[in-house]
Design goal:
11 strands, globular, mainly beta, 11-stranded antiparallel sheet
């Protein structure tokens, strides 16, 4: 009897239509792996514009090279930033990396066209600990995905009201907006990244606005299809 019940259940499962994936689920499942690319990175701050070249095939710490301005024109703050960027740049520019911050089951469809779908969501921390983890709960996320060729096209996180990530700091404004475009292999990569941050810490006010543009992707020879 139990065997016949099991067989019946299997037949029902086989005959039931598979649940269709949403455009978001398809986009989050899009392939992340592919060849490596070197690229230009243009950084614009309130004080300085810079052009850099990034080659992810180079050894760690040697992947980023400043093309302009010349070292004698660097400010002290820019020199510190370059040092930090050289230490942390891995050449990973893929919009698919934002997928881990998007809970597909809880995301809400807010608009849709023939080719795109836009969702709102509560951002979640990624698998690896990050300094951003403590502020995700204060943010609202928006993502636009491609319905015709699954992938993330735009990603945004915004604080809709001021918040305190810690006792001695208050964030009055936080915005991170990412626009993506297709790489030669079809994956979507960051084309522009705009970050605005303003608030106070230790009784001192701060305000920062950055714009990063990524362009001129050049395939790294012999990087294969299993590399990032």
């Amino acid at each position: 009897m139990f065997r016949s019940l099991a067989v019946s259940a299997s037949l029902i499962a086989l005959g039931a239509p598979a649940l269709a994936q949403s455009p978001l689920e398809k986009a989050l499942a899009a392939p992340a792996e592919g060849p490596l690319y070197a690229f230009d990175l243009t950084l614009s701050t309130g004080d300085l514009d810079a052009v850099m070249r990034v080659d992810p095939s180079r050894p760690e710490g040697d992947r980023l090279r400043v093309v302009s301005p010349e070292p004698e024109d660097w400010t002290e703050d820019f020199a510190k930033r370059v040092e930090n960027m050289k230490a942390n740049t891995d050449g990973d520019i893929w919009c698919q990396d934002f997928a881990e911050h998007i809970p597909a089951a809880d995301a809400e469809l807010v608009s849709e066209t023939d080719t795109t779908a836009t969702y709102s969501f509560q951002p979640q921390p990624g698998a690896e600990p990050d300094d951003m983890d403590k502020i995700f709960e204060h943010l609202t996320g928006t993502v636009v995905v491609d319905k015709t060729a699954p992938g993330i096209l735009n990603f945004e996180m915004v604080a809709e009201k001021p918040f305190k990530p810690m006792a001695v700091a208050k964030i009055r404004q936080f915005e991170m907006k990412v626009a993506c475009t297709r790489a030669p292999d079809g994956r979507t990569h960051v084309a522009s990244l705009d970050v605005t941050l303003a608030g106070s810490a230790m009784m001192k006010s701060f305000s920062q606005s950055d714009r990063q543009l990524i362009s001129n992707l050049t395939p790294v020879p012999n990087s294969g299809t299993g590399s990032r």
